[in-house]
Amino acid sequence: MRRRTKEAWAAYAFLSPWMIGFVVFMAIPMIASLVLSFTDYDALRPPDAVGWANYRRLLEDPAVRTSLGNTLVYTVMAVPATMAVSLALASLLARAGRRSAGFFRTVFYLPEITPKVAVGVLFLILFNGQAGLVNAALGLVGIDGPQWSTDGPWVKPGLVLMHLWSVGSTVIIYLAALRGVPRELYEAAELDGATAWQRFRRITVPMISGALFFTLIVQTIAALQSFDEAYTAFYGSAASATYSNDAALFYLIHLFRQAFEFLHLGYASAMAWLLFVVILAITLVQVRLSRRFVHYEGGDR
To answer: Cα 113–118–121 angle (5° rounding)?
Structure first.
């Protein structure tokens, strides 16, 4: 018992930095945000309790509906595209030699460490409707490229394409999962006459479904909190002077502007809790559906 007690205290000692960080930087700010969501607070005067007024305002604010709709549409576009491209790249790396796979794995991961602000600026350079490199490349094959940065229907597809710049971490996760699939399963399927598509559908996808499910949740949460690239490209000090389209108004951008441009900190706190509830609901639905589609070794679901 004394030994177990010592081991328990040692475990708590190692966990204490994370526990302290969680309490100080997560739990306390979340509680404070929840309290502020029921107040009118601008950081210049003491908070003034307003009850549920901020939450009623959420239901009446058209910008909330617009920004939340933009965010959901972007998420529906970005998450499947990210997973598909990442799986394709990981499949190619899985077939490459170890030396070349290591090189390209590093190449694919490098954009992950690129500052998001730089990616936002790069978006304006590449997707400029008049002189952008993307439209210039499309022009070489006879395609008249759209106005990616000013035409509303093309703003989110352009941001999705720009997001595919940084899929390195997802590629690495899928590559590790693919290398964990037993080769004997593929050999047995080939002997039974299974095509490449059948092997992919019946063996590869079920065996890496755990990794697919993990990245689905992570990518969904990240997409619902999209901010940096869109804000830099469309709502920075230079961009906001000329951009008047709401197609890039994501929910977190609207929240940020309410908090730090207009100093509606109480209202912004209510917006943050609405986003928390939306993310929690979507995640719970994904977890529920995963019981039908995610395969675990041993047969448990």
So the answer is: 150
Instruction: Say how many C-beta atoms besides its own lie within 10 A of residue 40's C-beta.
Output: 16
Give residue 193's region: left, alpha or beta (phi > 0; psi -120 to 50). Answer: left
pLDDT tens for 127-173 read: 887 878 888 888 888 888 888 878 888 889 989 988 888 888 999 99
Distance, CA of 87 to CA of 178 (rounded, Å): 9
C-alpha torsion angle, residues 117, 77, 251, 133 (rounded to 10): 30
CB 158 within 8 A of CB 127: yes
* pTM exceeds 0.85 for this model: yes
- How does DSSP assign 140-189, residue by residue? HTT-----TTTSHHHHHHHHHHHHGGG-HHHHHHHHHHHHTS-HHHHHHH
Please write the tens of the pLDDT for every residue from 225-266: 999 888 888 887 555 545 557 888 999 999 999 999 899 999
Tokens 């997409």 locate to 223
**DSSP sequence for 263-274:** --HHHHHHHHHH
Nearest-CA neighbor of 90 among 205, 226, 219, 218? 205
Selection from 211, 205, 219, 222 nearest residue 173 by Cα? 211
Strand (E) or helix (H) holding 132: none
Distance CA 38, CA 269 (A): 9
